[in-house]
Design brief:
Elements lengths: L10 H24 L1 H7 L4 H26 L4 H19 L5 H17 L2 H12 L4 H29 L10 H29 L8 H5 L2 H9 L2 H19 L3 H7 L5 H28 L2 H20 L8 H21 L14 H12 L2 H15 L3 H31 L1
Amino acid sequence: MNLQKKETAPLYRIILVILAGESIFILPFVLARIFLPTFLDVFNVTNENLGYCFSVYGLVALFSYLNGGTIADKFPPKKLISGGLLLTAIGGLFMSTFPSYTSLIALFGYWGFTTIFLFWGAMIKATRSWGGLKNQGKAFGFLEGGRGFVAASMGAIGVFIFSLFLPENIESASLIQRQEAFRYVILTSSFLVILISIAVYLFLKEENTTDETFVKSSPLKNIKSVAGIPSVWLLMVIVLCAYVGYKTTDIFSLYASDVMLFNDVEAAEIGTFQLYLRPIVCIAIGLLADRTKGSLWMILGFIIMLMGSIIFSSGIVTSELNTIFFFSLIITAVGTYAIRTLYFAVLQEGKIPLAVTGTAVGLISLVGYTPDIFIGPIRGYLLDQNPGIIGHQHVFFMLAIFSLIGLIASWRFSKLSSSN
């Protein structure tokens, strides 16, 4: 089945997908990214402990990507997306009780199922369908940019609520006071996710994007068919390297606290600031990609991400140099968000049929999102074993290596798509 041929689809559809696409990750990822120093304290865990939570999430997601992708090719996305949101929000209600470390690990495993098995492939397929033949960059630019705006907005709401329930002198707040303030952040986030789940169920309508050939054939046969497409294998490497970059942006708020010596609220504001870069970069890159080739902009994204990671890994970004800190943060984030915008927007450029989008996304994600398993523990170990700027330098040096690998894979993908 080909992509729909009309130039535009109703705007409300992509808005609903955008709201769903980021709100489902607020609880598992965004809160920890924005409030990382606070998160570690109120749950009484280390960076390495939190890394293992993300690893369990990644292991469950590893199973969920491929199997959930085949489901997305057989069923309409509305029920899958809505159900995933609701189940994720229920996990947030449990999170607000501040469970033990063992229970926290189990919760992240549960979220690996709710956010990926039911949700991920359906979201990508709905976005690709909305973009049609000529607007894939626009569709995924809107998706990633909109998700960034939603994350930043919910992050700003979270920071406001957090500060509202703390004493005026934030540095004097006790652990109990910080924990209670963070509880309100979690509950508010969970409530918003439930509202979006209801909105998706009531209002998201999607044109049929299934193909009877793939619906009736076995999932294994569909997987073998997709695995025979050369661009799929390069996209696995591209997504993996880009996702290492995205996971590394999680530590900007911690860098602000550990190295730049910002307080908890100021560090959280840094986490929110980087999220506001996302809609600007993603929408701009998406629109530009539709005018040229998405793969060329992916190459540029990896070059920029490499530059940012080299600056941070050099150790020159210290507490006396706020300007360099913000510049380096912007450089790294711009490259990361540019690549995230495009690695599924180039499915059409890679000659991957719409009818098998879910399966293709599942197979690509099976490898591409493995950083969920290994990056958390590695990053946590490097930070905990090397306190201060040294640990951060090691993390960004690792990112530089992955940036270089991703750059090579993107160049190969561009050459392959040009030869087809």
